Amino acid sequence: MVSVGIIGCGGMGKLHSRSLKAIDGVRIGAACDIDPQALKAYSDEFSPARTYSEFNELVKDPGVDAVVICLPTFLHKPAVLAAAAAGKQVFCEKPIALSVADAQAMIDACAKADVILMLGFVRRFDNDWGTFKRLIEEGAIGRPVVWRHFMASGGPRNSWFTEADKGGGPIIDGAIHDLDFANWLFGPMAWCQGSARHFRTTSWDTATVTIGYESGDELVLSWCWGLPTGAAGLHGQDAIGPGGTILFPHSVPADRVPSDVCLDEKGVYLLDTGAEKKPVLFDKHDMFLVEMQHFIDCCATGKKPVVTGEDGLKAIHVALSALQTARKP
């Protein structure tokens, strides 16, 4: 039996707890949140064995084997250091930290304590983006490829996401999934360039950056979390290469989805080689459940996670490098 402590009882804490409740051999041994109302709402739904208002108290609980940290990014480092010092296995939501130095300190603390540090890069467990990775590796559109992803909105509901010293904005937080996945798919970064600006927050809430990789591939991100509340721009994602294009599921036109496909069960990419426009199907699943199953398996068996603190450091290094080199008004 693996007993898990939840640190941060908001949206992500609840999401991961639903996954944990579905896994045999797991119990929610404790939970903590500084907000009494959030802690009560969480407790009413998940019935943790014990509750705390401070993570420093939860990590001292001898009945907790592992922690799932779902705090704002600027609190990741102190929570991870406390958990490691207490000998707890650690799952930490992405991004790992707001600086490379903090990320390295977290990695070092967990290594010294001989505990797991797994990062919440859930797209590594996703059949959706996994299908994209397979198509690229099979050479479906040739190499090099340019992966493009653009979106615009008012950003997440909680304001800390777009505060420079707490969440860092869209490139550091939201697009960190793309940056990690590109590191996994393309390999090391070779160069970066772009532009960044403030629309209405203290972070670089609006940025367009291009990351070049040693493989010759590129990732282009144009993300905005600086629109007025309720406003939204287009959201698109594709990859282009010398052999054609790959449209991500939310960018595939409705008339290109086969009529016999049940979209509750299947997702659809569109592979366009010019000579052929071919739908590529994948099975939808709960990537967060698969992610938590992997973490629990690592806790129970001592396996090394497929997503580590080092992956978190590499991703935040790319994000910070892109913003540092970006032109600013």
What does this structure look like?
With 329 residues, the protein is an alpha/beta fold. The chain folds into two domains: 2-121 and 287-307, NAD(P)-binding Rossmann-like Domain (Rossmann fold, 3-Layer(aba) Sandwich); 124-285 and 318-325, Dihydrodipicolinate Reductase, domain 2 (2-Layer Sandwich), CATH 3.30.360.10. Helix content is 32%, strand content 25%. The strands form two sheets. The protein has an eight-stranded mixed β-sheet with strand order 8-9-10-7-11-12-13-14, covered by helices on one side. Helix 5 runs antiparallel to helix 9 (309-325). It starts with a strand and ends with a helix. The model has no long low-confidence stretch (mean pLDDT 98).
**How many strands appear in the DSSP assignment?**
14
Annotation field: number of helices: 9
Describe the global form: globular
Helix content: 25-40%
Task: Record the strand order, biggest sheet.
Answer: 8-9-10-7-11-12-13-14
Over all CA atoms, what is the radius of gyration?
20 Å
CATH topology of the largest domain: Dihydrodipicolinate Reductase, domain 2
Task: Briefly note the structural class of the backbone.
Answer: alpha/beta
Could you name the CATH homologous superfamily of the largest domain?
Answer: Dihydrodipicolinate Reductase, domain 2
Point out poorly predicted stretches: none
Question: Major sheet, described briefly?
Answer: 8 strands, mixed
What are the secondary-structure elements, in order, as H or E?
EHEHEHEHEHEHEHEEEEEEEHH
Overall average residue pLDDT: 98
CATH class of the largest domain: Alpha Beta
Q: Report the span from N to C terminus.
A: 55 Å
Structurally, how many domains make up the residues?
2
- Name the CATH architecture of the largest domain: 2-Layer Sandwich
